[in-house]
Amino acid sequence: MRSRGKGWTMNKTVATGLLVVLLYTGIAAAQEQKGARIEVKELRHNFGKVEQGTQVSHVFEIRSVGTETLVIERVQPG
Description:
- The chain is mainly α.
- Helix content is 35%, strand content 8%.
- The protein is built from 1 helix and 2 strands.
- The chain has one helix spanning 5-31, and strands spanning 38-40, 62-64.
- Strands 1-2 form a two-stranded antiparallel ribbon.
- The N and C termini lie far apart (67 Å).
């Protein structure tokens, strides 16, 4: 079996180091999202069976977590 030598080990080390740097940079960039962002803890709520005429309500917690002002211009019930 042929030995790959020092050059192979060094190239492998450089490639691994470059991969780690690229992954770290990508993760850091993803965490620094700028602009308006909304965070909603739950997107749906099921009331189950409700008798006709019964009044029901539920509060959805919505937060603005971005770096800019969040403007909600339109809401549509589903």
